[in-house]
């Protein structure tokens, strides 16, 4: 961690300059902490570093699960799934999130010193201090959560351990030899930062006076709007913090961790419902949530938190489109995932429920065709055939380009991108999503069911009502006869987990869900192929090879070698 401190000022000048109207040369001898302590733009540049490294939906870790395989032979997630995961090689590590923790701790040190004048108006100056301190605390909590999610686990003695929790900036020559807290203490430390942030942040950044929170009511609205107006609506807010708190609580309560102890399922359900009820509860489920990524609609009601919309590009489409439409076919969904999509009537896809193995995509959940390129699908400007007669799209036709499972990825890709034969392209805008409302609904459903079963009402919502709304939006035939058969907590748990698998597919959740639920990591990836006369299953496209202790990921080996207080997780 000492190496992180060496770079704590790298980028501050550039970030600060972006906020300056007049870009005049700065004396290099002044680029130290004294300068940062007195320059508002440079100080805010440190805070803005806390916004780097926020996890978005384009991680494609699904290739390390039963949902997909990656066509690229040296892909890190493929290598991990095939048995290379170790304390020396862990592409899912998030230990570097501590770098952002030190950025925001440095900013908190600056703002608590009180030397910077953000605005000559006393009230506006105070409002800036409050808001930015709230941002820093929330970001510190978020980046600690990332580390906890990736590195919590059982230590040498079997105790469930969390992570070191850093609340102070440490100089390069300081003491980084800090022990891991218990898992429960780590969760509490994150919650404490979130809760303090909630006393400082506006619920929403808005130009409407009606949206002003009670703790800001004494300020002149014109001044308030300078600091907390809609121009800041991509910054972390109270609404976002409550959603993140719900995500943390669900993670903590999961079977691999506290397994329902300490009331975290109740906390997750309450935090989620508090946010969702500001949008009408279950009736507020966004109608465009199934394909939230197919346009650059900045007012998309499905998005709780996102980054700014980038310029036109086709980067992801070039990686993922099938080869006949000039893509590289990188991510191949598995038959395992395809089988998880129910029939259109909502019942599982079994022969007893009308599933025909020789007409496998007929009468299926409409999300299947929206998320996955199937044999015969129209996509990217062409018809994609993955079976006999499919040319370069056919299974294993071109190594590292053609599908290995019989499927290509459709979800997250702009369907209106075109990759032309002359190497030109029709590009479209994309945006990083950090949190969707559908995830928050699913957090509520899972937590509420664990508290009291399918019909446990928490703040006017139940797991059954949430899952009913999600499945209705997906296009499941109504009334949902299968959902009506679900009467136990166990049956609803299985259904919620499956709905989460489908709704959040390819957004980076499955990798972590399998671990927090304590499910099998070594389910063999399967495919499905039309051989010209019939469909046949490919029972072993890629064998997973995780160690039995891989539910809990390792602490980086070089960190445990440097710091004697830092205990490694069992097995690594």
TrEMBL record:
<dbReference type="Pfam" id="PF07980">
    <property type="entry name" value="SusD_RagB"/>
</dbReference>
<keyword id="KW-0998">Cell outer membrane</keyword>
<feature type="domain" description="SusD-like N-terminal">
    <location>
        <begin position="89"/>
        <end position="206"/>
    </location>
</feature>
<protein>
    <submittedName>
        <fullName>RagB/SusD family nutrient uptake outer membrane protein</fullName>
    </submittedName>
</protein>
<comment type="similarity">
    <text>Belongs to the SusD family.</text>
</comment>
<feature type="domain" description="RagB/SusD">
    <location>
        <begin position="315"/>
        <end position="572"/>
    </location>
</feature>
<dbReference type="InterPro" id="IPR011990">
    <property type="entry name" value="TPR-like_helical_dom_sf"/>
</dbReference>
<dbReference type="InterPro" id="IPR012944">
    <property type="entry name" value="SusD_RagB_dom"/>
</dbReference>
<dbReference type="Pfam" id="PF14322">
    <property type="entry name" value="SusD-like_3"/>
</dbReference>
<dbReference type="InterPro" id="IPR033985">
    <property type="entry name" value="SusD-like_N"/>
</dbReference>
<keyword id="KW-0732">Signal</keyword>
<keyword id="KW-0472">Membrane</keyword>
């Amino acid at each position: 961690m000492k190496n992180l401190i060496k770079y704590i000022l790298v980028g501050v000048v550039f970030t600060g300059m972006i906020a300056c109207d007049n870009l005049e040369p700065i004396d290099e001898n002044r680029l130290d902490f004294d300068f940062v302590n007195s320059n508002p733009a440079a100080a805010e540049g440190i805070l803005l570093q806390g916004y780097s490294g926020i996890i978005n939906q384009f991680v494609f870790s699904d290739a390390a699960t039963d949902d997909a395989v990656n066509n690229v032979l040296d892909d890190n997630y493929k290598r991990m799934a095939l048995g290379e995961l170790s304390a020396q090689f862990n592409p899912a590590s998030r230990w570097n999130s501590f770098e952002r923790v030190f950025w925001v701790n440095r900013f908190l040190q600056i703002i608590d010193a009180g030397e910077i004048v953000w605005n000559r108006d006393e009230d506006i100056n105070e409002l800036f201090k409050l808001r930015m301190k709230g941002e820093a605390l929330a970001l510190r909590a978020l980046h600690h959560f990332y580390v906890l999610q990736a590195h919590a686990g059982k230590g040498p003695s079997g105790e469930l351990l969390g992570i070191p929790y850093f609340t102070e900036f440490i100089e390069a020559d300081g003491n980084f030899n800090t022990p891991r807290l218990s898992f429960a203490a780590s969760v509490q430390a994150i919650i404490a930062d979130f809760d303090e942030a909630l006393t400082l942040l506006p619920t929403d950044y808005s130009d409407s006076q009606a949206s002003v929170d009670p703790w800001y009511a004494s300020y002149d609205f014109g001044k308030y709007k300078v600091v907390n107006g809609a121009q800041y609506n991509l910054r972390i807010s109270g609404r976002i913090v409550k959603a993140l708190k719900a995500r943390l609580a669900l993670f903590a309560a999961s079977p691999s961790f506290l397994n329902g102890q300490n009331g975290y399922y109740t906390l997750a359900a309450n935090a989620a419902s508090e946010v969702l009820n500001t949008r009408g509860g279950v009736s507020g489920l966004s109608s465009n949530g199934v394909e939230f990524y197919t346009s650059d609609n900045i007012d998309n009601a499905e998005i709780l938190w996102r980054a700014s919309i980038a310029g036109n590009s086709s980067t992801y489409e070039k990686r993922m489109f099938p080869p006949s439409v000039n893509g590289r076919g990188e991510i191949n969904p598995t038959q395992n995932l395809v089988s998880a999509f129910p029939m259109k009537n909502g019942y599982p896809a079994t022969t007893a429920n009308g599933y025909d193995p020789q007409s496998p995509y007929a009468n299926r959940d409409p999300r299947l065709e929206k998320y996955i390129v199937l044999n015969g699908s129209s996509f990217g400007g062409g018809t994609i055939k993955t079976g006999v007669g499919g040319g370069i799209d056919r299974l294993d036709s071109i190594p590292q380009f053609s599908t290995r499972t019989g499927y290509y990825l459709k979800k997250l890709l702009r369907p209106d991108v075109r990759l032309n034969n002359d190497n030109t392209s029709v590009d479209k805008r994309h945006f990083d999503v950090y949190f969707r409302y559908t995830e928050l609904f699913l957090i509520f459903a899972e937590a509420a069911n664990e508290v009291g079963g399918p019909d446990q009402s928490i703040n006017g919502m139940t797991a059954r009502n949430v899952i009913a709304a999600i499945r209705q939006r997906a296009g499941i035939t109504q009334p949902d006869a299968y959902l009506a058969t679900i009467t136990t907590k166990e049956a609803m748990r299985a259904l919620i987990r499956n709905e989460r698998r489908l709704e959040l597919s390819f957004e980076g959740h499955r990798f972590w869900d399998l671990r927090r639920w304590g499910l099998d990591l070594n389910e063999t990836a399967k495919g499905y192929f039309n051989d010209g006369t019939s469909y046949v299953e490919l029972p072993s496209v890629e064998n997973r090879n995780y160690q039995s202790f891989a539910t809990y990921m390792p602490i980086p080996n070089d960190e445990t070698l440097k710091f004697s207080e830092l205990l490694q997780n069992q097995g690594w």
